[in-house]
Amino acid sequence: MQTIERRHLLSPGARIGGEWIAGETRFAVRDPSNGAVIAEVADLGADAARNAVDAAARALPTWRRSPANERSRLIEAWAGALLEAREDLARLLTWEQGKPLRQARDELSQGAASLRWFAEENRRAQGHTLPVNNAGVRNLTIKQPVGVVTAITPWNFPAAAVLVKCGAAMAAGCTVVLKPSEFTPLIALAVARLAAEVGIPAGVLNVVTCSSAGAVGEVLTTEPRVQMVSFTGSTQVGKAIMGKAAGGVKKVALELGGNAPFIVFEDADLAQAADAAIGARFYNSGQICIGANRFFVQDSIYERFVSELAARVARLRLGSGFEPDTDVGPLINEQAVAKVASLVDEARSQGARAVVGGQRAARGGLFYEPTVLRDVTPAMALYRTEIFGPVAPVYRFSSEDEVIARANETDAGLSAYVYTSQVGRLWRMSEELEAGMVGANTTSICAPEVPFGGIKHSGLGREGGPGCLDEYLEVKSICFGL
Ligand code: NAP
């Protein structure tokens, strides 16, 4: 049985306007490593969602008018509180999500770093004074918060997604209603509790938990007082949310699914590429939107790369996130395991070969063996599908033009990775790959200072980077007649 020291952070109540709501009904949150119930959380519906929007709307006038440096001070204090409680929060995150504890710690540190970045960017959210053509008029712009924002977040990075959305919106002067994933509400509630403890006023951050997103989601995407919907999750749900928000001409920010190519040319440093491939595919058990989903390896080095990769994958240790040596934890639920198993089974039935893994793990439950598949082809479903599991399919290519065409033949456009020792090729590939983010001889593409987001069906807008608060700000022109 796991536990955390700061027991009050393991809170089952939703947060609406400064109240902790127990709810009349509850749903169970389970440890994916063994199925045990961790806690039962308030299972709220449309009325609670409307109450949360009320609370956010009531808190908005005071919060949006508060001095920018005061909001930044509170966001920085929130970051400090997160770091102080990092070990407990990381344990909670591993407990309900399954990832190795060291990855949970990293996620919290990254989340806190993002909050600090938003607090800093908030001090730089300037407008402009503008040159004019009309002698009798002077023009300037100011930036103002969008208003009430709803944030809908997934389970795979359930702390980072919450902090990145809510932190940026709140720093900009917006108030927020957050709906975390039904699989990972506990970490969202814990970080909301810390926000309250550092003095972020009631109603600025509200959290509505529910076991079925439909009714709550409907309110959060259509309520007239909601000005913006910020969503991270699957492309399918993102499209539906965009459709709902369109009815109210709401702003939308969408961080959706990926199908990243990971391209290795024959002139690449093979060991470097194989090392990087491990993180790019097996971090968080492969449940990562920017994860390498399709490995493209040039013909002449195909055999060598497959054996370098397989040797590394064979050493990965499968286990509960709390076991100190674990590299790869469980998947989030049975549906996720079944999807991965069916993609691999189908590929094998069409001629793919598993060099390592290729099946559910012997320890049972939600564990799937870290897998390398060779002799895969673009005709197989896993070529077009975000696998979201610990499976690395390795495709062949012969020329630069061919691999560019292959890499881009997907609706997704989130991230892409390329390994080569030719500088000119790195430039060409970086320009030609259709993705919001390119890792050129690196997979380290995430930092608060770097814009994060996709093109094509992978999303709209950017999180992080210079000017990132603009997502949550409107530009107003003011024209002064002299
Ligand atoms: P998901 O099924 O789309 O769910 C995401 C969130 O939307 C959850 O809170 C979910 O609630 C909620 N939701 C589901 N149906 C809804 C509806 N009709 N109205 C309103 N909300 C609704 O995605 P997921 O399985 O949690 O996350 C995995 C996906 O997220 C992958 O595709 C991954 O690539 C993507 N992702 C993208 C990024 C990025 O930055 N681009 C980052 C992380 C993840 P319930 O959980 O309660 O169903």
Apparent shape: globular
Q: Indicate the mean pLDDT.
A: 97
| Strand residue content | 15-25%
Number of β-strand runs: 20
Q: Biggest sheet, in brief?
A: 7 strands, mixed
Strand order of the largest sheet: 14-15-16-13-12-17-18
Number of helices: 14
Helix content: 25-40%
- State the distance separating the first and last CA atoms: 72 Å
Poorly predicted parts: none
Rg measurement, Å:
23 Å
**Ligand catalogue:** NADP nicotinamide-adenine-dinucleotide phosphate
Q: Please identify the structural class as seen in this structure.
A: alpha/beta
Précis, in short:
The chain is an alpha/beta fold and 482 residues long.
What does this entry look like structurally?
This protein has helices spanning 46-65, 68-84, 86-97, 101-122, 160-172, 185-197, 213-222, 235-246, 270-282, 302-314, 334-349, 381-384, 400-408, 423-432, and strands at 14-16, 19-21, 26-30, 37-42, 129-130, 137-145, 148-152, 175-179, 205-207, 226-232, 251-255, 260-264, 292-298, 353-356, 371-374, 391-397, 415-419, 437-440, 459-460, 473-481. It has 482 residues and is an alpha/beta fold. It is built from 14 helices and 20 strands. A hairpin with a 2-residue loop joins strand 1 (14-16) and strand 2. The model has no long low-confidence stretch (mean pLDDT 97). It starts with 13 loop residues before the first strand and ends with a strand. The strands form five sheets. It has a seven-stranded mixed sheet with strand order 14-15-16-13-12-17-18, sandwiched between helices. NADP nicotinamide-adenine-dinucleotide phosphate (NAP) binds next to helix 7 and helix 8. NADP nicotinamide-adenine-dinucleotide phosphate is lined by residues 152-157, 161, 179, 181-183, 213-214, 217, 232-234, 237, 240-241, 255-258, 289, 386, 414, 454, 459.
